[in-house]
Amino acid sequence: MRFAIVSDIHGNLPALNAVIQDAGENNIDTFIFVGDYCLSNPYPDECISRIRNLDNKYIIRGNEEKYLENLIGKDQRTWTDGQMQISYYAYQKISHGNMNYLMSMPEQIKLDISGITLHIAHSSEAYISDCEHREWSTAKVAMRYKDRWVTPEVFRADIQHYLNEDVRFNKVWGELENGIYIFGHSHIQWNYQLDDGRKILINPGSCGLPLDCMDLGIPYTILDVSDNDAIVVEERRVPFRVDEYIDTLRQSDQFIEAAVWSKVIMKELKTKREYLYFFLRFVEGYAVQIGDRQRPFGVSTWEKAYELWEDSLKEERILA
User: pTM above 0.85?
Assistant: First the structure.
């Protein structure tokens, strides 16, 4: 069987459509969706509907689905802060049927395919503790590669070297049972396996918001499992006109309803690197400085902090 592994769509319908089309051209039998279907881009409901209408798929929920679940039944008249505007926007856009579909998704799946076990969860922490996020979070990757683009070959060699040498990872890796472990969450595409291929880690990267500092297209991963136990992992990048998409986002109602969040996401889409983490850290520092204890951040603090943060980026040309 040939699987297309897709994660972290984050409401980016054009990117999802591009991946689905490419998968069809590559004779995919079944899709595996690894969570985070909404928030950050203006097509949350459309992305859920697109996935629901696919015939052959396995699907789990991610951490972003929890944000939406926490809003169910809440008084929308209290939704007046600035920080959570993107969550409110997505929640109000998603149809009742699609929301129920999201909430019905399991958090993990375990499959047997031709005698090989596939383990599927949203985050690698389900399998290898903090071994990925400790040194290869999007914030760490952004600082590691600074303002330069990285090639897949360089990135693959760097993370392979790290995993080979990390004592904590090798202890956890040694304790894992044989099988294929599939996850997303970090927005960084990578895979790891030993020569015998009996144990494999796969992160397909983020379909809707890639943050691995690569000046390439939209990532997803093809997993080919044959009846004779042969396994092939292929990392793919689908061409995507990001400048055109950013113009569309700028003209969307999301930009009106959640302008600050949308502007940060536009930076991430254009540069393929983390900005949100650094902005949230900046807002927290600003709020403490002015004595604002409201959390989530209020509109005035949220918007003023973004204005100041933008100025600091222009002056210093650094992320933090």
Answer: yes
